[in-house]
Structure formats: structure tokens, C-alpha cells
Design brief:
The chain folds into two domains: 183 residues, no CATH class; 157 residues, Beta Barrel (OB fold (Dihydrolipoamide Acetyltransferase, E2P)). The strands form two sheets. Strands 1, 2, 3, 4, 5, 6, 7, 8, 9, 10, 11 and 12 form a twelve-stranded mixed sheet that branches. A five-stranded mixed beta barrel has the order 14-16-17-19-18. The chain is 16% helix and 33% strand.
Length: 380
């Protein structure tokens, strides 16, 4: 009898211990901060707007540049672009007053066109401010989905420019001697924040709400007229929409605009799809859009899920039908300039779409009906 009681007591004690080891249920109030919790969090420091953050902590040369810690050599050319550093790193103090920023996520990496990066926006006095976040996470949208507001304690991180694009980052040294023009690219540049480090620094504010995202409506002319390299930095990363545009069937190259071909995109880097092969070089592929007067670029990575879909109006026969599909493109405005030996021009600008849902194009038939563009993937 005593043995039976001991066994029952042991089982009972085991059940209690097992129950005590079960993880607590996720508490929404702890996972998503409310405004009062945000105010409590920043008591040890200051919450900056995105522009204030950049103005206070980013310098032109950065504080990481010295005789022994050189940036990429192609990032500065005093004879062509005096006083301009396209690559820079300013480290932020690890201790002392807390340095906070907040913003709402405007990107989604599910389509593969924002690999290991996020963009956030903040609306200040009705105007959009934006910042890129370089994060070493292959599926960051799982943790920080489109429309999620976040607050970041930036102490111990860095603010820098990669090809003139401002981003929250960490210092990273590139010594890839096999890269194209490797001698110009070896050196320090903004690198991706380790995901574990980013998670520690970042908290969610409220639940995701895509309806609160702000999108600026611009014309191509309003974008490409801004050739000033420094002014372009504040425009880069913004969520924008351009209306009344169509794909021209062209791509941009160092020799000018050329018509896309009908080749296999796994072989032909000029094929009439969004992003054919770069032969593993890895730069974003760009296709030209026009409003009938001005032109600019829409870019996509060759590793994106929809890279081998025909651009609107294109098919196996060519691109002659492209101008018939007119509508809008939404995406992240990009100003990418990685070589200071060249003067800036309109082709530094591009719109990076998050997926094909960012395109809303229609063809008008003989009866005046609006026929929506339906994406079609290239097949052999």
C-alpha cells in the first residue's frame, strides 16, 4: 500500500513539474508595445525622427575612415564629385543616452526582391521620411511584416551609405578579389546587422496595419529632375506610386537604351522579362517605363520569385504590345550610385517593386473595355 502511495505521489509531483515547464502563452501586451510603453522605453534617451537621426549621426566622410580603414576606392572622386563619399560608416555609441528611431515597414521580402533588407517610413508633419535597414535575415518579413511599426535602440550599431543609399548597418569589410573591378570594391562598407543583434534592439509597436502606410504619388519628371547626389539621399527608400506609365520594352545599358530580346532568360541577360540572368554577377536588372515624355527604371533581382515573368505587354514574339498596357507602378524609390568617377544622371533612379501586385496596368480593347494585364511566366 505504501509503495502504491509513493508511486502516485511521484507521478503527481512529475505532473506538477511538467506543467511548470510549459512555456507561457504569448501575451499580446508584451509582444506589441502600446504608446505608453513606448514612452516608458525611451526614458533613458531620445526618440529621433528619421531625418533627425541621419542629420545628428551621419557625416559625409564617416568616422570609420582612416589610413588603415579605407572605404571602397570608387566611392570618392574629388575631381568629378568633389566632397561626395558614396560609401561611409558612422559608428554609434554603445553606451550612454539611448538613441531610438521608429517607423513602419514598407517592404516585403516574400517575393525575393528585398533580400536581407527592410525599409521603414515615418510621417512627420504630413511628409514621408524613410530609411533602409540592412539586416542579415533571409525572411525578415516573417518577424517584421508589411505595415508593422517598430522601434529600434540604435546604440552600438552604425549609420552609413552604400552606393549613396543611407542605411542602419554595421561595418563590413569586403575582400572579394573575384568581383568585377575588385580593386575598386575592396574596403569597408555598410554591412548587414546580425539578426540576433537586430532582434535585441528592435521591438514591435502595435499590430501590423498596411492601411497606415503612406505612398507619395510622383511623376517621372519630378523624380529624375533631382540630380543632386546629397538631396537624393532623403528621397531614397520612400514608398511611391507613378501613374499613367507603360513599359517601353527597353533596358538600360552603358551604351544607352536597347530593346529587350526574346531569348531564354536563364541564358540571355537582355530577355524581355523582369530580371533575366546577370550570369551570377548579381546586380538588379532594370526595365524601362515611360509616361510618354520621360523615362525611368523599374528594377528586380534575378533571384526574385517572379524574375522570369514577361514585362507587361511582352511575349515570346517581342515587346511591340508593351505600350498598350498603361497604368501605375508602386514600389520603393531607389537612388543607387556606386562609382564617384561618373557624373550623376537620371539612370541612378529606379523603382524597386515588392512583387507583381505593385503593378496595375490595363489595355483598352476596341469596345473601350479595360483589360487588366495578367502576368505570364516565360516557358521554353
Amino acid at each position: 500500500m505504501r509503495k502504491t502511495i509513493n508511486i502516485l505521489f511521484t507521478l503527481f509531483l512529475g505532473l506538477i513539474m511538467f506543467a511548470s515547464c510549459e512555456p507561457n502563452a504569448i501575451n499580446e501586451e508584451k509582444l506589441f508595445l502600446n504608446e505608453q510603453q513606448v514612452q516608458d522605453l525611451i526614458q533613458d534617451g531620445k526618440l529621433y525622427t528619421l531625418h533627425e537621426f541621419v542629420d545628428n549621426f551621419m557625416t559625409e566622410r564617416g568616422n570609420y575612415l582612416s589610413d588603415t580603414t579605407l572605404y571602397r576606392t570608387r566611392g570618392n572622386n574629388e575631381s568629378v564629385n568633389p566632397g561626395i563619399h558614396l560609401f561611409s560608416i558612422d559608428t554609434l555609441p554603445s553606451y550612454g543616452e539611448g538613441i531610438y528611431i521608429r517607423g513602419r515597414v514598407t517592404t516585403d521580402d516574400f517575393g525575393g526582391n528585398f533580400y536581407k533588407s527592410l525599409c521603414i517610413q515615418q510621417i512627420v508633419n504630413g511628409e514621408q521620411q524613410a530609411l533602409r535597414l540592412s539586416v542579415d535575415a533571409g525572411s525578415a518579413s516573417g518577424m517584421y511584416p508589411l505595415g508593422q511599426e517598430i522601434i529600434i535602440r540604435c546604440n552600438g550599431l552604425a549609420i552609413g551609405r552604400y552606393a549613396n543609399q543611407i542605411q542602419l548597418c554595421v561595418p563590413s569589410y569586403n575582400n572579394n578579389k573575384y568581383a568585377q573591378n575588385a580593386g575598386q570594391k575592396i574596403g569597408w562598407a555598410p554591412g548587414r546587422i546580425p539578426f540576433a543583434r537586430f532582434r535585441i534592439a528592435t521591438q514591435l509597436v502595435g499590430t501590423p496595419d498596411k492601411s497606415k502606410l503612406h505612398c507619395d504619388t510622383l511623376t517621372i519628371g519630378e523624380i529624375i529632375d533631382s540630380y543632386n547626389v546629397k538631396d537624393a539621399r532623403q528621397e531614397d527608400g520612400k514608398l511611391i506610386c507613378i501613374k499613367d506609365i507603360y513599359y517601353t520594352g527597353e533596358y538600360e545599358s552603358t551604351s544607352g537604351l536597347q530593346m529587350c530580346t526574346t531569348g531564354d532568360p536563364e541564358i540571355d541577360e537582355y530577355a524581355n522579362v523582369f530580371a533575366p540572368t546577370t550570369k551570377n554577377v548579381g546586380y538588379p536588372q532594370s526595365r524601362v517605363i515611360s509616361d510618354g515624355i520621360n523615362k525611368t527604371l523599374v528594377s528586380m533581382s534575378e533571384y526574385a520569385k517572379q524574375a522570369n515573368f514577361y514585362i507587361p505587354g511582352a511575349d515570346s514574339l517581342g515587346v511591340t504590345n508593351c505600350p498598350n498596357y498603361v497604368g501605375s507602378v508602386t514600389g520603393i524609390l531607389s537612388y543607387y550610385m556606386d562609382n564617384a568617377s561618373y557624373a550623376p544622371d537620371q539612370w541612378n533612379w529606379a523603382i524597386s517593386i515588392r512583387d507583381l501586385d505593385d503593378l496595375s496596368l490595363f489595355k483598352t480593347d476596341a469596345e473601350g473595355n479595360q483589360i487588366p494585364w495578367i502576368p505570364v511566366e516565360y516557358t521554353k
